[in-house]
Design a protein that fits this description.
327 residues, alpha/beta, Rossmann fold, 2 domains, 5-stranded antiparallel β-sheet, elongated
Length: 327
Amino acid sequence: MQSDIYQEVISFFKTYFPHSSPRVCVAVSGGGDSVALFHILKECASQIPLQKLGIIHVNHHLRGKESNGDAELVKKLACHAVVDFYCKDLRPPFASSGLEEWGRKERYAFFSQIIEKNGFDYIATGHTADDQAETVLLRLMRGCGLKGLCAIAPTRNDGIIRPLLTISRSRLRDFLAQEKIDFTEDSSNKDLRFKRNWVRHELLARMVEQFPQTVLNLTSIADHARRSFASIGPIINTWKADNVTYENDGGFLILKTGLHDTSIAAEALAEIFREKKISFDCHHINEVFENISKNSKIFLLRGGWCYSSLKESLKFSPSISVLKARF
């Protein structure tokens, strides 16, 4: 069992970084997945080969003594392994809403800082095949196109890598038990008020009971979607070059003629929304096509963005006041 996991992680590095000896800092929360990842990378360091290995931990201080206990366990892990250890203490905002997004932004900002200032090439996170399956289900429930089905990427342009993305959580738990490795359990992971926890413990768990290959099948869908999206990427870029004009006010125009091919136009429009950091769901994209012929009306998007149908184009603006000035 464990040799298979080692080989899969080694294969990940051979696939994505075949001609390098990367310097990797592992994001360790104290939970089983990330603790397993560190031990696997430490054991495989010479075979990958890794030039440098470290540990990074973020204490969000959301669970009092439990959070501090996680930080202490991770610090001891780093000391015992004799690797560099980096820790950031966060203080949660007063508002309870948006805590997940707040924590994510703070973590990734710290990750970028470590890469930039401490000589690491990559930050490795412990995302597993189960995380991938959960993300696919969340995207499907929200409504998504092909890019949404790609879910969690194995590597990102900002240096984030996920070496465990093809390995199930149950296999990692078996590995930890066999190796007698200690880890912590985050009590908040059982809180069903969080959508991902509900998907994990209620939806996905029941699907696996009926269809044991569910996690594998969902991860395969994500992998296929990623390859398919890569193949149409040049087509989307050509479409944007032919049909999109970016304006000085931060907005953009899209020619109506370009929206006739809805399959490509929908994926391209979603890409533009991502570029402009416009939060959207599937219905926002669908409504754009429904509103093409409704000239001189203003339609609202999230984050203050809005758009209106002109004679030959759709005008998207980050401010409704700017858009009204066009009429």
